[in-house]
Design goal:
This protein is mainly α and 67 residues long. It is built from three helices and no strands.
Length: 67
């Protein structure tokens, strides 16, 4: 489910990234595996917003049976 457009997300990315960096540098992040996992997930999603959109290379093709 998509909650917003890509353009809107790109506007918010710098502020979210700066907050994420602050959390990464904290002592709490060094001690908590769950927090580190969440940070990695957030970082990956931030990176994906910067990539260009891709359409799938495959598609289902319906063929009519010939008798």
């Amino acid at each position: 489910m998509q909650a917003g457009s890509r353009k809107m997300l790109l506007i918010v990315v710098p502020s979210v990234w700066s907050d994420t960096l602050a959390i990464i540098k904290s002592i709490t992040a060094a001690r908590s595996p769950l927090l580190r996992k969440s940070i990695v997930k957030l970082t990956q999603r931030i990176g994906l917003t910067g990539l260009p959109r891709r359409s799938p290379q495959w598609c289902y093709v319906v063929r009519k049976a010939q008798f």
